[in-house]
Amino acid sequence: MKYNFNTPINRRGTDSLKWDVAEQELPMWVADMDFQTAPEILEAIHKRTEHGVFGYGNVTEEWYQAYMNWWQRRHDFTMRKDWLIFCTGVVPAISSIVRKLTTPNENVLIQTPVYNIFFNSIINNGCRVLESPLVYRDGIYEIDFTELEEKLSDPQTTLMILCNPHNPIGKIWDKETLARIGTLCNKYHVTVISDEIHCDLTAPGKEYTPFASASEDCRAVSITCIAPTKAFNLAGMQTAAVCVPDAVLRHKVWRALNTDEVAEPNSFAVPVAVAAFERGEDWLNALREYLWENRKIVTGFIEKEIPLLRVVSGEATYLVWLDTKALADIQRQQSLDCLTQEPASYSEELATFIRRKTGLYLAAGAAYGRAGAYFLRMNIACPQSTLIDGLQRLKEGVQAYMAAKTQNGRIR
Questions:
Q1: Looking at the chain, which terminus has fewer C-beta neighbours within 10 angstroms, N or C?
Q2: What pLDDT is attached to residue 345?
Q3: Does a structural domain hold residue 49?
Q4: pLDDT single digits (tens) 302-333
Q5: Are residues 65 and 199 in the same domain?
Q6: Cα(119)–Cα(51) distance, rounded to whole angstroms?
Q7: Among positive and negative, which fits the CA dihedral 77, 80, 82, 85?
Q8: Are residues 274 and 137 in the same domain?
Q9: Residues 275 and 285 occupy one common structural domain
């Protein structure tokens, strides 16, 4: 193997948000990878470091070309240079855009279960979260377009945040679905922020469709947030881009990002993005193969060893969405107290118990909206030895959780 993803990297004591846990704990919650970034990117970082001067920087022509060439080559989407705006991250961009394009108490629509920080970006800017829950049936998520249109038609709904591909469920929205969303949003004058940060982490052989490319309606209402950070494990480098085809909308976004001072690069933001898109393709292809093998390991293990859980089928991201509803149903049948338990508290109680019992730190599904009440999110972007450790802990935790439940439904 040209690239080694099997060797564990010790991240303890490195000021890592993910690994700031107790010694015996195993964090598999937040979405960053336990792999070193591509050697080609490390080379670019070393070169920049060796220069030794870290003054104010510009967004270079190479940066624009790297984005345009990557999206053309990998995703069959032609961008124009003037559509692109540098920003320090996808989340800062989303928050700035919400602040600029809305007034207090307007609705911002999201399709839950969805990335939990969307809630922060909406609420912190004085807007209302309008959940349009995805329909979950037989392990598959779909959009209820009748319900979606009803909520988009509300004059108070002025903005929608789309997750494409969708975190945490790993769904790749097809072109027809995206076009249908675009038609409705254009009809009801709703602008769409499309978070496409996971777009390069699809299963081998699977491709995603950029929202802006799905139709003319999509292009007219779209603000697309993109970055190399998720695919190349560069979140700490604070580098991203916003792509806005419509000139009037683009000016508003440009003003938003500059007003909030999140439109200037640090000394590494430009070179790492250029290196990723110009020289990181082979590494990314190898990574995708490894991540897909990890997903197969998880699915096989849970089917055999923890059959009360279910892996939701996903085609993108390195996040596995675990359905725990069968586990909850058994407890509900055994205990009257479970009938009155708030659904939102179930995933939190289960995740907390597993962490306390085994050290395995997973994300509770309730953080992603009411529709995530009976789910857990597991980050599988790690060496396979670490993954197996996590799965064994998960098995131990679920078994202990079942055993710990008394007839009145309480944890001993």
A1: C
A2: 80
A3: yes
A4: 999 999 999 999 999 999 999 999 998 887 77
A5: yes
A6: 41
A7: positive
A8: yes
A9: no
